[in-house]
Specification:
This protein is an alpha/beta fold. It is built from eleven helices and eleven strands. Helix 8 links the parallel strand 9 and strand 10.
Length: 343
């Protein structure tokens, strides 16, 4: 790629007739190429190829989500038999794809009064001798509220969109990175319990990792990605958009604008209402939530009809695949280009 970069710079000089003043006007452009082309473009190209040759399939997404949002799991309330089944399912997915536990086991246990909860944490070590000491966290909450107001005899709040959709996405990315071995930094795949009780699971894990003094680069939480936004809107949005340059950089790595700004996010206090927030509090690094639910496109929030048949699996599959080069670009960037902004 270095040869390609040199050629690009030479092309700029030649096209400018070798005039120093014109070359100077292209300094910013050359600098931008230097910052993004050499590594990011190379990674983006390889990422696009890996997605094309190893696409994440709708059938596997649908199968996993239908199980997590089935009546058998009883709405996945923290402390219930149903969420225990969900935890075992996640652990088995990690085992099948050679994702190791980060702690002694996959489970990071905590208490909410008398209730015992479990975060499920998978670990994929980075393949770069230096960058593997830095961490990226991809997360979602796998719990839900258990039951809700009865509708036609149904009281189970299955939580398909909230947040089996994000859980499945994290599991699919874990599988992808394990297969492709395309992560220079180390990645923690984290599924949280007790989000519905006030972010208790993610709060516990963030504090535990902070005590271990891990070098956390970025954290992204995926919250309710099972339904598409209007065609006039960007595919997904980032909470706390102005706090860092994460959205901008993800779009650079993705090769197109897939993550945008949601004007009502601040009004609804979304940055503080999802599992990214404890990591932001603990580490003061870019830690955001990404969602495609914008309060206009899904009417079953905390409702018994938040079921798998209400989701758009074509949308989910598209989003999960489009995020692969974005995540790979972030995980493999040669330096920490994603930073907090001075608001």
């Amino acid at each position: 790629m270095k040869k390609v970069f040199s050629f690009l710079v030479l092309g700029l000089i030649l096209s400018c007739g070798g005039q120093k003043n014109i070359i100077a006007t292209n300094a910013d452009a050359i600098k931008q190429i230097a910052e993004t082309s050499e590594e990011s473009v190379s990674k983006s190209v390889s990422s696009s190829r890996s997605v094309a040759s190893n696409p994440i399939l709708l059938e596997t997404i649908k199968s996993s989500l239908e199980y997590l949002a089935s009546d058998e799991l009883e709405g996945r309330n923290t402390g219930s038999k149903g969420i225990e089944k969900a935890a075992v399912f996640i652990e088995n997915q990690f085992k099948a794809n050679q994702i190791k536990p980060y702690f002694e086991t996959y489970r990071d246990s905590f208490n909410v009064e008398k209730i015992i909860g479990y975060n499920v944490v998978g670990f994929l070590e980075g393949n770069d001798p230096k960058l593997k000491n830095e961490f990226v966290i991809l997360g979602a909450h796998y719990d839900h509220i258990g039951t809700a107001k009865e509708v036609n005899g149904d009281v189970i709040a299955n939580g398909a969109n909230d947040d089996a959709s994000g859980t499945v996405a994290v599991l699919e990315w874990a599988k992808h990175f394990s297969k492709t071995k395309s992560n220079k930094r180390s990645v923690l795949f984290t599924l949280y319990a007790a989000e519905e009780m006030g972010l208790k699971g993610s709060e516990h894990l963030a504090e535990r990792l902070k005590k271990e003094n891990i070098d956390l680069y970025t954290m992204i939480n995926f919250e309710m990605i099972g339904v598409p936004r209007a065609k006039t809107e960007i595919m997904a949005y980032l909470s706390g958009y102005g706090k860092s340059n994460l959205a901008k950089q993800l779009n650079v790595y993705a090769g197109g604008e897939i993550i945008g700004f949601f004007p009502k996010a601040k009004e609804f206090n979304l940055f503080q209402r999802s599992d990214n927030y404890p990591f932001y509090n603990a580490f003061k690094v870019p830690a955001h939530a990404i969602s495609t639910f914008d309060f206009t496109n899904f009417e079953y929030y905390h409702h018994v009809d938040d079921e798998a048949d209400k989701l758009d699996f074509n949308h989910m599959t598209s989003f999960i695949n489009k995020m692969v080069p974005a995540l790979e670009g972030m995980i493999n960037a040669p330096s920490k280009v994603i930073k907090m902004n001075n608001e």
